[in-house]
Structure to design on (265 residues):
């Protein structure tokens, strides 16, 4: 950085650092926020680096515990744990809590990635590995980086934001392709019809882009889609290794050993 003319400061950086008293507004400035952002990335990467195969589950924080979807969320978390996947949610109440509960009850890893909000201030009690974030975009990186698939349950703006961001990153090949499962035919059916009639048929997306979305009402089918994708990736990796003479029998990241051995749920 160069400062000349009226941009020259009257004190040095060392002077300001060592000054016993002074203006504290600097801790709220954008340069200091960069350090906070960096620290959140470091904390997230360090905490989740050894997580292993995982699936991010999105869904409403407003779904009550006596709603049928809550029970389905519990079943989903349990089925993911039994298939060898950690469950990652936003750590909040509602369907996030349901998926975390199912994972924890089944002895799986139940991850909560919380966010600082005026109306949500703590992780649900079923989270066994949790991080709270200040910044949405840092949290989104963690959802994407450590997941081998997404299951999207009914939800509001936040759920839609997470769904379409994941779709965009897969479509633009910013992330490796992974399955996106929409859980709840009645809830998501209208959106799928709109995507087909307006986005696909009018040429705004391709047919392959539409095929990125899988629609189901069945927990076992949802988990099977994700596990099947892992097996397909494993077979592809083995085929490529055989073609270039480097086959060593190592499964690719994201494929639970048990799912690969048994070939199914």
């Amino acid at each position: 950085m160069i400062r000349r003319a009226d941009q020259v400061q009257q004190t040095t950086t060392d002077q300001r650092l060592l000054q016993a008293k002074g203006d504290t507004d600097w801790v709220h400035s954008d340069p200091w926020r960069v350090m906070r952002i960096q620290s959140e990335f470091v904390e997230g990467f360090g905490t989740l680096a050894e997580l292993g195969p995982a699936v991010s589950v999105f869904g409403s924080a407003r779904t009550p515990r006596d709603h049928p979807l809550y029970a389905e969320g519990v079943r989903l978390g349990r089925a993911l744990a039994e298939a060898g996947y950690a469950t990652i949610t936003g750590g909040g109440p509602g369907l996030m809590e349901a998926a975390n509960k199912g994972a924890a009850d089944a002895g799986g890893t139940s991850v909560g990635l919380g966010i600082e909000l005026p109306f949500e201030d703590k992780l649900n009690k079923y989270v066994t590995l949790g991080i709270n974030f200040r910044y949405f975009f840092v949290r989104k990186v963690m959802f994407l980086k450590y997941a081998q698939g997404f299951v999207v349950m009914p939800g509001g703006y936040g759920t839609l934001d997470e769904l379409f961001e994941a779709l965009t990153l897969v479509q633009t090949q910013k992330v490796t392709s992974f399955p996106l499962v929409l859980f709840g035919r009645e809830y998501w059916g209208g959106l799928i019809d709109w995507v087909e009639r307006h986005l696909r048929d009018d040429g705004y997306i391709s047919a392959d882009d539409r095929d990125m979305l899988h629609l189901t009402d069945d927990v076992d089918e949802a988990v099977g889609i994700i596990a099947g994708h892992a097996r397909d990736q494993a077979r592809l990796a083995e085929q490529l290794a055989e073609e270039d003479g480097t086959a060593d029998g190592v499964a690719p990241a994201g494929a639970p050993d048990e799912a690969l051995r048994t070939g199914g749920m």
Observations:
- The radius of gyration is 22 Å.
